[in-house]
Amino acid sequence: MSGMNVLGKVPIAVVLALLPLLFLLGAALPELADQRSSQGPQYGMHTLTADERTLPLVAAAGFDSVVQLFAWWEIEPTKDQFIWQAADEAVAGAEYYGLDLIVRLDKHPAWANADPLKSGAPPVDLAEYDRWVRRIAERYRGRVAAYIIWNEPNLALEWSGLPPNPDAYVELLKVGYRAVKETDPDALVVSAGLAPTNTQSESALDDRLFLEAMYEAGARDYFDVLGAHPYGFGRPPDDPRGVSDGMNLARLEDLRDIMLRYGDRKPVWITEMGWTVEGNEHSAWQEVTRRQQAAYLSDALRSIRQEWSWVELITIWNVGGETHPEWRGYSLLEPDGAPRPAYAAVQEYGLAQGKPTNEQHGAAVDGKAARYQVLADDALIHLGDKRLPAPWAPIHQDRNPSPVWRGIVYVNDADLASDAGPWRLTLRVMQSNFWGSRIWVNGRPLPDLL
Question: In sequence order, what are the beta bridge partners of 360?
């Protein structure tokens, strides 16, 4: 496929079904503008996929940050074989919408498991994790605001089924910190948000005990910001500290007190926060109504800003439109993509703070149209409806078979309406050997390929 320069504002989704393809987008990188506010915290949303559907919603709400997982097992499912498309699009899309991107680095592939006979160690081979973090930080140097090292390691569920081990997590944190700082010194390192829990067992460890043990193991010098997950657990945001068994938003003050006891006055970033409208079997007690979800979120944004000056980022989990039963209740969207009252509530709050919306994230720089890279170099995606052996593996995002690939192109609406000349999207399709392969652009099918 020939190269293509893509400009500015209108996202064009290209969906291809049942065809192998070689996709290349060439463009210059935009200048990064500092969107940080000098007053009060930043506001962010956690996306499950940072793409043309979710990023405009974050920006349109007047928010300025986005947290996104870069799952190692999706990007490097086989050692030294990388699938960068989704990560590249997340970075380019965040830049386009003027959003600070905060990347979480975990979900290691099976080939990077640690030696199972080495007890008390992290579940991942630390040498491989070091290589992985350096590879990510080098690829996106200067384009990612911060990296979160792992997620909720005080839960066995997030620690590869092993009993939570603060000392082992600090080992991993040290490796991640050094890898980032030696590769992209301007990027911040955020400690993993801990899951609020009162449990002390092989399945979970109280986050307060876990944090104390982290400090005892020397964690203080290996993060710039403390990550936190202060969920509401069905209680209103003004629920006092210590009531409801401490399972409320005010639990965050317990973590702050631990920091201060160890002489640590670093800022705190809330990298997940929310209320669910759909409690499952073990969390039915957490369920709130849709109106309560909206009120609790907007009230929490307001009260955190007013009362906790040490919180510099507040991130809502999650933008949504998802169907996963563990996630959809917290979403700001219904499973079909329709906005819940919570989205309108946080949008009203965000816009009231004077944050720029995506309508203000224009493509003009010094009177010239800015150009954005959507993918890096060539992206080879093999699609098909059958499981295939090497050299065709891994299939797109390690799904085998993988019948659909979806990509994003951003085009400036003003440029389309001008006399600057036509723009062209070119796809090179190779070895298309399946009848009925189709391409859609913005939901409109193009003619059959065969």
Answer: none
Spell out the SS3 assignment of 370-399.
Answer: CECCCCCCEEEECCECCCCCCCCCCCHHHC
C-alpha closest to that of 127 among 166, 163, 178:
178
**What's the order of all strands across the beta sheet hosting 404-411?**
404-411, 10-17, 438-441, 444-445
DSSP sequence for 242-262: T-GGG-SGGGHHHHHHHHHHT
Q: Which letter, b or e, does each residue of 261-276 get, where b requires 16 or more Cβ atoms within 10 Å of its Cβ?
A: eeeeeebbbbbbbbbb
Residue pLDDT, tens place only, 114-157 = 987 677 899 999 999 999 999 999 999 999 999 999 999 999 99
Alpha-carbon dihedral angle through residues 144, 146, 147, 148, given to the nearest 10 degrees:
-140
3-state class (DSSP) for residue 170: helix
> Of 158, 107, 140, nearest to 398 (Cα)?
107
Alpha carbon 406 to its chain centroid, in Å, reads 18
Rounded to an integer, the average pLDDT of 245-270 is 98
| Peptide bond just before 236 cis, omega within 30 deg | no
Give residues with Cβ within 8 angstroms of 347, minimum separation 6: 60, 61, 62
Q: How much is the pTM?
A: 0.78
Q: What is the pLDDT of residues 195-219, one digit of tens each?
A: 999 999 999 999 999 999 999 999 9
Q: For the segment 35-93, what is each residue's pLDDT rounded down to a tens digit?
A: 333 468 999 999 999 988 899 999 999 999 999 999 999 999 999 999 998 899 899 99
The position carrying tokens 């800003």 is: 305
Rounded to whole angstroms, how far apart are CA atoms 204 and 280? Answer: 19
